[in-house]
Amino acid sequence: MIYGLVQPDAGQMVLRGAPYHPHRPSEARQKGVAMVFQHFSLFDALNVAENVALGMENPPPMGELAGQIRKVSSTYGLPLDPARLVGDLSAGERQRVEIVRCLLQDPKLLIMDEPTSVLTPQEVEILFRTLRQLSAEGTAILYISHKLEEIRSLCDTATILRRGKVVASCNPREKSARELAELMVGQILTPPARAEHTPGELRLEVSGLSVASPNPFGTSLKNISFQLRGGEVLGIAGVAGNGQDELLLALSGEITTQAGRVKIKGQPAGNLGPNERRALGLVSAPEERLGHAAAPDMSLSENALLSGNLRQGLSSGGFINWAKVETFAAEIIKAFDVRTPGTHVAARALSGGNLQKFVLGREILQNPDIIVVNQPTWGVDAAAAATIRQALLDLSAKGAAVVVISQDLDELLEVADSFAALNEGSLSALRPARGLSVDQIGLMMGGAHGLPETPALAPKPEEARL
Amino acid sequence: MIRLEKRPTPSRTWVAVTPVLAVLLTMIAGGLMFWALGKNPFEAIRTIFWDPLFNEQFAAYSRPQLLVKAGPLILIAIGLSLGFRAGIWNIGAEGQYIMGAIAGAAVGLYFYPEPGWHIFPLMVAAGLVGGMLWGLIPGLLKVWFGTNEILVSLLLVYVAESLLAAMAIGKMKNPDGGGFPGSRNFAKYEASANPELIAGTGMHLGVVTAFIAVIAAYVLLQRHMLGYNIRLTGQAPRAARFSGVSPAALVLICMGASGALAGMAGLFEVTGPGGQISIDFASGYGFTAVIVALLGRLNPIGILLAGLLLALTYIGGELAQFMLSLPKASIQAFQGMLLFFLLALDLLSNYRIRLARREVAR
Amino acid sequence: MNLSAIDFWILTASLIVASTPILLAGLGELVVERAGVLNLGVEGMMITGAIAGFATAVHSGSPLIGFAGGAAAGAAMSLIFAVLTQYLLANQMATGLALTLFGLGFSALVGQGYVGAKPPMMGKLDLGPLSDIPGFGVAFFRHDLMVYLSFAAVVAIWYFLSRTRAGLVLRAVGENHDAAHALGYKVVRIRILAIMFGGAMAGLGGAYLSLIRVPLWTEGMTSGAGWIAVALVVFASWKPGRLLLGAWIFGGITVLQLNLQVAGVQIPTEYLSMSPYLITILVLVVMSAMGGRKAKGAPGALGRSFHATH
């Protein structure tokens, strides 16, 4: 709304003492408001300079602009090559493009929506240094985030929103993270219980797995190897776009390789498709719920059939037994407390958390020996996230091998026994999760992003203001 | 200000009502078009939609024609609808129809003038295979190289048309035809004829096959995993791959099946109502079938009704040509218009239309 | 058989004439697709342009006014497509197809009275000494105004797309309409303008067929030229320069097979007249077989409907 994309129903905004009601983003930009989006507003097939030009009101000629980009980006410790295609950049670099685009317009107010969700801890440090520097130079920063530690370390005032309403305003440094969390969620949270267990037999072996990405701007997997036993939970961390999707596809069977690269319970399975792997006991849940894990316009029962057909015996001789499908769908809804009027509802009508519970429930209820999930709690409310994590832990307690790919480090530390990080398609060595610090994980995740050590920019104690 | 809001599930009512509404709007717009051409709009609409069925003078000839024309339309459209549902756009059914006819005709001419009950089934099989292979060309090119199947299948129509002309005046020309282009008449050669099964109904084997295809497609889509996979691929291709559907296999199945049905339609036509391979054998059924498939909402029952309706416009168009000297092409324009209205009204099934109220700030 | 009757320079000259209709239509479609819209109705817009251009030229007696009429009719047809796909969010493939079916029928309807009519002739531009260059001059400098305009259009569209801000915005819209919308660009408005430009160019291409290349009006006279224009855009990897090359290759094949027919080669004419379509398919296959599919420059949002949710 501040950026002029949406018009207010009521009330007014004041910018630098004058009433402010932008009708469109260009107007907002003219008034000195710039925004860095959560989901990047970038164009893969255009180069950095063209992307920057698109976000500016009156961009100078391309040659001149390229020079400016180099200058600004080095001033703030965000190196960028104006001629590179944005699609080839890493997530961190792409965010730099957004920030540089904002900075070139000399903003008075910079809006950032969840900027760190795609960054390694080290990249976050660099970003914070830049923001502190900007704030010291007199730019106001509106920082939207659900990561409480970030707010506490960066911001001067915090306003907490719950369901579109302001519930509190405070100085975040005077509150603990827990107090802030409870303001945000509105209830007291309990971490999931972790049962003691002994590792079982070898379930999943991956050796020397290299896969080209099916996506032109995706990340190819490079020589990935790991082993996983029954009852074990492997957490795989990594910043978005480092091969998570590709790893899931290669494990689920959507991408096939040589047979020996992936072994399920000792059987070579690299060349098998998703259904053959399901038959061997491996199920998976991709990150994208709508369109990948579930068909948006199909009913929940049809979606139950989507991956449940084989293990649940929902069809015979190719003919579907709809009564059985209904029963299975109803079972998922009941077991995972999916809030929906019934099995006939289209998947797209469910909220993110409910659909995620349905999707994971569908896989978990198939009693797999191995389950691979990618970002199981992405965009899911706290209560549903807790249910999902608990269900994964319960499954592992029953002896299944669990692979959790996630960007959420806290989540991984909560559920994982062993831990590895994906970086530009390579997987680090597995480490026991117990005793790892966030810093160590950050180094595992980051290392190879080509981030130069930025010169110390002398962060001032006085920080972001609103 | 008008705003659109996506419905959580497509409205079933609107899905059923929009085709009817589209037909009504087309009648109005078509009437206006005829009026602009200096014809009486009411008379024109009546001649197209009413007279073929209920006017004593014409109905005796027209009524059987309804099934004769609807048969191939339905048969082709059923095949196309499978692909369209899966997001595979075979636009070249006209070519597959021609190739089916040529392949079947070749078998028939090979046996001529032998008698034998086995000849006709062999011709049907040849027609099926001919159409299927022609349909598999764009399918295989898509699977192997990722070539756009819309363009290839369409360009192959022009190739098939040239081939048809070459056959009619060359290899398949009737040696007893007095030098006129066109093959021997299959309808008059007993072993290859596809006659009316019940006199005066227009019902021939092609029509029967079309009805069987409707039922088979219905069962396939409602009850069978292949039908489910087709629907899934069309709605969410990535989810289909996750589910274990092989996109390549599905492309080949859909292109092959739609080609086979179109080829059979061509064969039944050349041995029945068409009679012979001639330069003007192809009459645009392959393209009209696209409209039939879409108008029928890719639903087998819908296609059955839409096929009958468009067959009616064909016959009505001929009648109007004869009675009101309306140009033949006006029917094609009419059919195009029908598709426009249908596509425009589709909005109502997927979106709710909201007036004025501004959106709540996010 | 007499192949010596085929003169290389005259062949080149007729190649250019034969390629002009698809070049014009292809350039229009290229801009449309760069804006992220797949309009498969080129054939329908071309044939509408052909009859409208023919009719206006016959009535006004001026081929130039005829071309304007053709362009206007093509743009009007494309407006139907624009409204259906941009406001009513109809499927672009189905709508394009409907446009083609409607255009073929509608043009035949309107064109009834014009079968057999003779259009006013368009004079060749006299380029003085350039036209007199032996060989080369015959091939390149003895054409009508439209041929030179089509060359100019290649350069202008290249400049527009790669060097101007408006062109950059158009490409951005075609690449990622959500991001373009987030930055405040009017996705729908830009696309409608692009679609109308594409319609006008297809109309010009059609008018060139009926006024200069043939020059007569017959039903269905485009016979697939519009589809070939769409295929050319893929061949050209969405680049104007390569589109010119593709149009020439196609024009060359058309002219060559016509000349072979005239020269009495021992192949039935029906087989020769298949060749342009077969070659187009072959070119499509080669293009799609080479290199990564998406990486060849297809606009990211091609064919997808855009509906702003906020």
UniProtKB/TrEMBL annotation, chain B:
Name the UniProt key words of this record, in alphabetical order. Cell membrane, Membrane, Transmembrane, Transmembrane helix
A molecular function annotated in GO for this UniProt entry is: transmembrane transporter activity
Annotated GO CC locations: plasma membrane
Per the record, membrane topology reads:
Multi-pass membrane protein
**Pfam families associated with the record:** BPD_transp_2 (PF02653)
The regions listed as transmembrane in this protein's record are: 12-37, 66-84, 96-113, 119-141, 150-170, 197-221, 242-265, 277-296, 303-323, 329-348
Q: Which domain of life is it from?
A: Bacteria
- What this protein is called in its record is ABC transporter permease
TrEMBL record, chain C:
One MF term in the entry's GO annotations: transmembrane transporter activity
Any idea where this protein resides? Answer: Cell membrane
Q: Which Pfam families match?
A: BPD_transp_2 (PF02653)
Keyword hit for Transmembrane = yes
Q: Which residues cross the membrane?
A: 6-25, 37-58, 64-84, 96-115, 145-161, 192-211, 217-236, 243-262, 274-292
Superkingdom of this entry's organism?
A: Bacteria
Tell me which InterPro entries the record gives. Answer: ABC_transp_permease
The topology of this chain with respect to the membrane is: Multi-pass membrane protein
- According to its UniProt entry, this protein's organism is Falsigemmobacter faecalis
The keyword Transmembrane belongs to this UniProt entry's keyword annotation: yes
**Chief location:** membrane
What this protein is called in its record is ABC transporter permease
One Gene Ontology cellular component term attached to this UniProt record is:
plasma membrane
Keywords for the protein's UniProt record, in alphabetical order: Cell membrane, Membrane, Transmembrane, Transmembrane helix
